[in-house]
Amino acid sequence: MLLAEQRQLLCEHGRRAVETGLVIGTSGNLSVRLGDLVAVTPGGVALDRLEPEACPVVDVEGHLVEGELQPSSETPMHLAVYAATGAGAVVHTHSVFGAVVATTMTELPPIHYNTMLLGGTVRVAEYATYGTSELAANVEAALRDRRAALLANHGGVTIGDDLPQAFEATRLLEWLCEVYVRARAVGEPRVLTEEQLSAVVLRALQTPGFPRRENDRPAELPVPFPDTPT
Ligand SMILES: [Zn+2]
After folding, report:
1. What 3-state DSSP class applies to 3?
2. Which residues are catalytic?
3. Nearest-10 Cα torsion for 100, 158, 15, 101
4. Residues ≥6 apart with Cβ < 8 Å to 230
5. C-alpha 73 to ligand 1 mean position (Å)
């Protein structure tokens, strides 16, 4: 079986996505890239009911290479993201607070410094019908120099070097959106200034153990903070 390890990872994280409430029913899709091949969740199957062999493998142009089920309808978006960012994994969900911000805002204002873990202010990609190349292009633009983007009236997407990292980015994106929505219920949230956000990056760079860029690491992918900042 091609990409056996990657397909197993899709099943594990699919289950976690459902268990943690990031996904309901068949909404949401995940993928992992290895070289010129991408393992992706199939369309029409709940993410907590996946089996490795049920996850199709496609090439970077979207041709089915192995598997009996059809790849997720959002596969064009995943492939466009890989082509543009050099990421190793993509996670897309319709999580509740992400969807709330994506239906009302043009960006998620940086009111918490952990926004910088996603590369900065999270943009909302312009609306386009799901599964279209237009949506893929809009998402690609919104993801420039970021690890996350929201999709207008739809949901969110995150990237990582691997699936655990992309999945954690989705959890963080949802947390940031929830904090924003709840803060708005209390008062007008203070938005961090460019200066304050730059200081966060500087501070992280001075932290011992901060991960350096590897030679083979795509320059477009922002480097995350070491572990959990205090
Ligand atoms: Zn979707």
Report:
1. coil
2. 74
3. 0
4. none
5. 9
Distances (CA, A) of 153 to 40, 59, 125, 135, 161: 23, 29, 10, 12, 27
Ligand 1 centre and the CA of 50: distance in Å?
Answer: 18
pLDDT in the model for residue 25: 82
Dihedral, CA atoms, 29, 6, 75, 47, nearest 10 degrees? Answer: -20
200-220 tens-digit pLDDT: 988 888 876 655 444 434 444
pLDDT in tens, 162-209: 999 999 999 999 999 999 999 999 999 999 999 999 999 888 888 766
Residue 202 DSSP code: H
Q: What is the pLDDT of residue 213?
A: 44
Cα(77) to ligand 1 centroid in Å equals: 10
Among residues of the chain, what percentage have pLDDT more than 90? 84
**DSSP label of 9:** H
pLDDT of residue 206: 83
Using DSSP, state whether 32 is helix, strand or coil.
strand
Q: How far apart are the C-alpha atoms of 160 and 163, rounded to whole Å?
A: 6
Distance CA 211, CA 207 (A): 10
Please give the distance, rounded to the nearest whole angstrom, from the Cα atom of residue 28 to the centre of ligand 1. Answer: 5
Q: If you measure from the C-alpha of residue 174 to the centroid of ligand 1, how many angstroms do you get, rounded to a whole number?
A: 15
Cα distances (Å, whole numbers) of residue 99 to 57, 92, 95, 125: 28, 12, 6, 12
